Amino acid sequence: MKKTPIIIDCDPGHDDAMAILWALASEELEIKAVTTVAGNQTIEKVTNNAIRVLTKARKLNIPVARGAQEPMVRKLVVGGALVHGDSGLEGPKLPECGFTVSELRALELMVKVLEESQEKVTIVGIGPLTNVAELLITRPDLKTKINEISIMGGGTVGNWTPAAEYNIFADPEAAKVVFNCGLPVIMSGLDVTQKAYVTREENERLRGQGNELSVFAAELIDYFSKYHYEVEGFPGCTLHDPCAVAVLVHPEIFDSKQCHVDVELNGELTTGMTVVDTIDYQKKLFGKEVNHNTKFLCGVDREKFVEYFLEAMKKLN
Ligand code: RIB
Ligand code: CA
């Protein structure tokens, strides 16, 4: 099977960790690099976490490069202390780092992978989009080597403010660059990720699979789900970031609509909001052409999502 090369840009983060594991288990994908961005925790912590997750999965040959320690123009708002804990990956026991961080910065590693790849690369952006925006701004010539950009972020609801989801809120200028870069964007926003949840019973089935990484994923969910049950009152643990990987390997389980999305930068109440036009108002009202720049995911077959997730974790040994 021809594998799609991917770069995962992330801020581990429990759900980032599960997204990485799902990508590792997917024979359709090949992780060429993991780059880190400050978000859930500081750049030091999320970089350390990314290496420890790959060490846990015994994948010591995937380069991890450290990226932006703060957003493009705004101050960093660390988003994960309440949700992911002080380390950014509280809960499961993690191994020490089994390898050192790349000498290259995230941007340099992204450029290297794109320049060397024979195939077009898919970028999976599951934290604030600072690194991805920097790549698009500084090396627009490399857009020809990018297949699409699959992000977790945004939505028609918020989870950091009433209007804004955290990844977009953390660096709205970067997100605006990504949505307007002209490449296909797949948006796993809260409209779909809040439906992609794992129940307690399903998490026990995951743990019961018995292999080390299924147990590890179940322990990630044990910790990560506390916030979703106690604060958000959800019926399960929402797997935000894994949606951005799952849609690449199981697109058929998602409902989506091709539409225009842009990002608010200046709203007193709405900064960081993804403005999702599912109606094409400008076209209907004024006949203006609307740029359907985004595949907006609006639903998922939750049971199939969970079954595929458990199947992927079971494959990891
Ligand atoms: O709002 C959810 C997003 O913020 C996820 O990517 C999670 O890891 C945090 O970064
Ligand atoms: Ca994340």
TrEMBL record:
Entry annotated with the keyword rRNA-binding: no
GO cellular component entries: cytosol
Keywords on record: Glycosidase, Hydrolase
Signal peptide: none
Name of a matching Pfam family: IU_nuc_hydro
Gene3D superfamilies the UniProt entry points to: Ribonucleoside hydrolase-like
Protein name: Pyrimidine-specific ribonucleoside hydrolase RihA
